[in-house]
Amino acid sequence: MGVIKVGTSSWADQMLVRSGWYPRAVNTPAGRLGYYAERFGLVEVDTSYYAIPLPETAAGWVAATPPGFTFDVKAFRLFTGHHTPVAALPRELRPAGGATRIRWRDLSAGAYDELWDRFHAALAPLAAADRLGAVLLQFPPWLARGDAAKRRILAAARRCRPFRVTVELRHSSWFAEDVVVDTVTFLREHGLGYVCVDMPQGHVSSVPPILIATTDLAVVRFHGHSRAWESGDKQEKFRYAYGAEELRRWSVLLHELADQCAELHVLMNNCCDDQAPRDAARLAGLLRVAPAGQPRRRNPSGCMPVASSSALSARSPSALSSGKVRPDGAGSGGAPGPASG
Fold first, then answer.
1. Beta strands of the chain (E only): which ranges?
2. How many domains does the structure of the chain reveal?
3. CA-to-CA distance for 263 and 265, rounded, in angstroms?
4. In which residue ranges is the amino acid composition biased (Gly residues) (predicted)?
């Protein structure tokens, strides 16, 4: 079995800071990250999606965390095809013309290359200190399956190398019954880690939580099951508390997934108040993951073979109704719980 690391999708979200999860005396960015790292061995950097951090900022993250701590870094949104405010770009790289939002193709080749160079420079301190887990390429919900989409994914992934790359696909066309094996094969053949997402089902934007590893690193992100997923603001969209039985069932499935890979990253993204770290701590306890950046290897034999196509079929979209994928057997999500972090 592989190493399991558990954490949340942010440590500096303002709702979390205001929630009281951090003691009042822990009131600096470095102090909060250090406090967080005493409790979890993994965190997802979400701010890098909105703007490329400075190398000095990343060096500060290294200084605030112990050896063995891991950062998964979300790629800058421009790189994955999202509309991006011009103000999110360094002033000297902003295109002329007065547009307020742009796509990557609106930049000159030189400016686009420079943005990637700066992104790599931000990752360098993490990689040098062995703190970098993977770069997350989170593609937009409108990226439907097709040859052009695959080329776009591979182009972005090549830009991320030599770092490990994980891919989150958010259009249901990738997971239709007749193509889901092709999707997994595509990721596996190109060394791209599949990101499984637990989220509300039954919406246009829904994708099924298929538990499969396509590389030595598997990732599962938990969004919760708020009924306001498509209608609420950010706080209401992620307002969900995982129940005790729900987490217990997930712990069984996550142990099974850890059999497929060398490393499993589990991230709570029900970011409303302090619910994410509370649920992450409960799940870490069920998985027997040590809290202070020292994940417990449960089997030193390493990685077991990645699941075959027949194993994948047991976790295909058709398995949702049988409860083999969603541990609580729910469809579009249960009642939202108390505010989360």
1. 3-8, 42-45, 70-74, 84-85, 101-102, 132-138, 165-168, 193-198, 217-222, 263-268
2. 1
3. 7
4. 330-341
Q: Which pLDDT score, from 0 to 100, does residue 97 have?
A: 84
| Range(s) of the domain holding residue 318 | 3-322
Query: Is the separation of the CB atoms in 241 and 270 below 8 Å?
Result: yes
CA–CA gap between residue 30 and residue 59 (Å, rounded): 11
Residue 12 to residue 265: CA distance in whole angstroms:
19
**Is residue 341 domain-resident?**
no
Single pTM value for the model: 0.85
Distance CA 56, CA 125 (A): 8
Given a cut of 70, whether residue 238 has pLDDT beyond it is no
- Long-range pairs for 80-88: beta carbons < 8 A, 24 or more residues apart: 80/137, 80/138, 80/139, 80/140, 80/156, 81/139, 81/140, 81/143, 81/152, 82/140, 88/50, 88/51
C-alpha–C-alpha distance, residues 256 and 213, integer Å: 11
Rounded to whole angstroms, how far apart are CA atoms 213 and 231? 32
Residue 102: which CATH number?
3.20.20.410
pLDDT at 229: 53
Tell me, yes or no, whether 339 lies in a domain: no
In a domain? residue 217: yes
Tell me the per-residue pLDDT of 49-96, one tens digit each, with 9 for 90 and over: 999 999 999 999 999 999 999 999 999 999 999 999 999 999 999 998
